[in-house]
Amino acid sequence: MKVIGKQKNSKMCVICGMDNPYGVKAQFYNMEDGSVRALFRFREEHQSYPGRVHGGMIAAMLDEMGLRCCWTNGREVWGVTTSIEVKYRKPVPYGVGLTARGSVRKETDLFVTVDCEILGESGNTLAQARINYLKLPTDKIAGKVDEHEELCYLIDDGVTEINP
After folding, report:
1. Omega before 164 within 30 of 0, i.e. cis
2. Is residue 159 part of a domain?
3. C or N: which end of the chain has fewer Cβ atoms within 10 Å?
4. What is the mean predicted confidence (pLDDT) over 76-92?
């Protein structure tokens, strides 16, 4: 599927932060169908049992993907997670390339509901989530933070298509 735009990365977020030495450094892409995809690789530092990623890191990745879905199709919606239902389908390995995808399921004046999943190298679903966000301006979430200063990295990686 064709990439139509790339989203910026932050400084210290555990999922997208480029300055966080323990972060995943995931890259997020707006797709032609209105969905968002991410390319990333968990590392050994993100493990629970050997060879497996910690469930909390999986949930954090799905949560980040969910909010990133609110930044598509001309939206720049900010909010906080009010609920997340994660289904862990198969162990998520670290050290391999993974893909996440998500799309907005429903949006009202106050809330956004998003469906997301993490896919393995063969395209099989490893984990999925339905997430609800309460829309809020950034000053209500984190005080006086400049989201444009925090989301300051736009990494040109030449990705033009992402499959599955």
Report:
1. yes
2. no
3. C
4. 95
